[in-house]
Design goal:
By secondary structure, the chain is an alpha/beta fold. About 40% of the residues lie in helices and about 15% in strands. The chain has helices at about 15-20, 35-45, 60-75, 90-95, 125-140, 140-150, 185-205, 230-235, 240-245, 245-255, 290-305; strands spanning about 25-30, 50-55, 80, 105, 155-160, 210-215, 220, 240, 265, 270. The chain has an 8-stranded mixed beta sheet, with helices on both faces. A hairpin with a 2-residue loop joins β9 and β10 (about 270). α2 packs parallel to α3, α4 packs parallel to α5 and α5 packs parallel to α7. The longest helix is centred in the middle third of the chain and has 23 residues, at about 185-205. The N and C termini lie far apart (about 35 Å). The relative contact order is 0.16.
Length: about 300
């Protein structure tokens, strides 16, 4: 398996990655598209000509962002739809309301290192939001993605993960911290490992239909995602702007180098190398996040939880 490398680096912006890409006729969804790197991901896709839907918890905030993206790109086809990834009814309503093919699904929304909370189902909040919600969304939109791939030759899913995956594999015997002390970073790490395993599992199941999924680490970006994070922990990292942080998401959504390629993990616009521990530059990926057996088990468990 040849490692994917690109001309883009740490400093590259989403607009630079998307330059020269024509997404006319393609339809994209960006979850969490009204804040942080979600805005710049959506802006780059819209700038390349895609019809973009911002799937957001706050439609009013989404409308402001959509108007700004349309004004800056000249693309009027930027829409807003409500989506709460912790609410199964909200996900079902979003899926039911989608009409026609889908070509790009960017699973960007997420929460980080939250105090211990559980959903109405008893699911740990970070696992429920970052993984299960996106799993339900992607599987619910599977038919639309297959239709998109049939029309254009491919459909892509982009899963925004994190180097926090090194903190924890998926603990199948205690997904929701019912029998172990809750640690916000272990919970976050488990959910981010799950994001990569989802990309592995989705590609294995859907590549024959032209659907691929890849995961990424966007880098350290100062956004609302860090609201539960203390300042001391965050000082050691090199920070990216939101425009730079969105670049790897846009690369996975648009680059011709990724056509037909899935189940991989990227950082700084390069495919990551498997390493034993998290490097200081936040690149690299743990073997447990790419394990096909764990990916298959997670898919089955997730489907059972949502059934």
């Amino acid at each position: 398996m040849t490692r994917i490398t690109t001309p883009f680096q740490f400093e590259s912006t989403a607009a630079e990655v998307a330059a020269g890409i024509d997404l006319s006729g393609r339809r994209a969804i960006v979850t969490g598209g009204a804040s942080g790197i979600g805005i710049e991901t959506a802006r780059a896709l819209a700038g390349a000509g895609a019809e973009v839907t911002l799937a957001v918890r706050n439609p009013d905030a989404g409308a402001v962002v959509a108007a700004d993206i349309s004004a800056s790109t000249g693309n009027a086809a930027v829409h807003v739809a409500p989506l709460d990834l912790t609410d199964r009814a909200s996900i079902a309503a979003f899926v039911a309301g989608w009409r026609g093919p889908l070509h790009l699904l960017v699973n960007n929304a997420g929460v980080m290192a939250t105090p211990e909370q559980h959903t109405a189902e008893g699911w740990e909040l970070q696992f429920a939001t970052n993984h299960l919600g996106h799993f339900a969304l992607a599987t619910g939109l599977h038919r639309a993605l297959a239709d998109g791939a049939a029309a254009t030759g491919e459909a892509r899913i982009v899963a925004v993960s994190s180097s926090a995956l090194f903190r924890s594999p998926v603990i199948f015997d205690d997904l929701h911290f019912e029998r172990r002390p809750y640690d916000p970073w272990d919970a976050y790490g488990q959910s981010k490992t799950a994001n990569v395993l989802f990309a592995v599992g989705a590609t294995a199941r859907w590549v024959s239909e032209g659907i691929t999924a890849n995961a990424l680490m966007p880098g350290a970006i100062r956004t609302n995602l860090q609201r539960h994070v203390g300042g001391v922990r965050a000082q050691r990292y090199l920070w990216k702007t939101p425009e730079q942080g969105a670049s790897t998401s846009v690369l996975l959504a648009t680059s011709p180098l990724l056509k037909g390629i899935g189940g991989r993990y990227f950082a700084n616009n390069q495919e990551a190398i498997v390493v034993d521990e998290a490097p200081e530059d936040l690149t690299g990926v743990a073997a447990h996040a790419l394990d096909p057996e764990a990916a298959d088990r997670l898919w089955v468990v997730s489907a059972q939880l949502l059934s």
